[in-house]
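name: query_chain
kind: protein
chains: 1
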Amino acid sequence: MIRIVSAAAAEEKRSTEERIVATDKYERERMAALQHGVRPGPASGSPGKSARRTANAGDGVAGAAVASRCAPEMSTIPGGIVYSRAPRQAVNGALLVLLIASVGYTYWDIGRGLVAQWAADENYSHGFLILPLAGYFAWKRRAELAATTRRPSFVGLLVVVGSLLLLAASVAAAELFVARLSLLGLLTGAILYLFGARHVKLLAFPLAFLVLMIPPPAIVFNQIALPLQLVASRLGEAAIRASGTPVLRDGNVLELVTVRLEVAEACSGIRSIFSLLTFALVIAQLGRYSAMRAWILAAATIPIAVVANATRVAAIGIAAGRLGPAVVDGPLHSASGVMVFVIAVGALLLLERGLTRTRTPHASQCPS
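structure:
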């Protein structure tokens, strides 16, 4: 009798220990699920005898596999725990809305001044296209972004703080370019802090594309525009002289017999460079160009724009020398700007066709 009681007690003790072990295992799996940012479902098996628990666990894993195949919004983690991706997607959406609202409030005045400059300065009127294009490029990556696990990084918070300090300093110093540029740093840091480095990598091109909407500082703009004016003047002088029309160049001023032409900033080609560069990057992104071919297409916009505007200068100079100075201020002058830009776009498309014929399939996106 004493042996039977002892055996029963030992069996009950083992059963109790097995239930404790099973409960601890479930709690560990539950904590692992919570660390993934999901809400675990019911346990894969209930603590009890080992044979029953093993069978129930197998049924739980099989059921989780069926749920994963039948419902795309369901997934599993090791241990057979079934969880839904819906809460994670809801959290990502809420964080995105919060990010947009915070950035909009902080940079409201900066953004309003930027839009006003786009509307007032024809050199930067392409800025109206940059935001919707960048949003479209980000939207194209929505499936990859949704499938990427959030891995927030504390480094992103440091980038956000640094960008805000840069904004404060630039506003105090009345430096608009740096203040506007800090917006890109803030966006990058916020994505890194809230979502992780993989999300930043996926959004690298749309973020870098936003740089084109920010006008460079006036001192930088002038340093670029003046050499382009001189190059356009030299090329225009050579073309006018080759046509047999007498011409004398003094800097960016062309002296003809009947008229005096000044190659202004608008005729330097810098406006065409900004627009053509935007167009080239859009083509490269939509065509999924390799980095090298995308850089070739982007770099080609500079000589194409310069030659096109030099052609415009030469055409106006030849027409003015033969038809009179009225040509300079007439409709030909305005129409020539549109015609030259169309020719530049055509040259860029011809280059793009040549690159398309020679390129091999490449999965990477254009450079960011």
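note: The chain has a mean pLDDT of 78.
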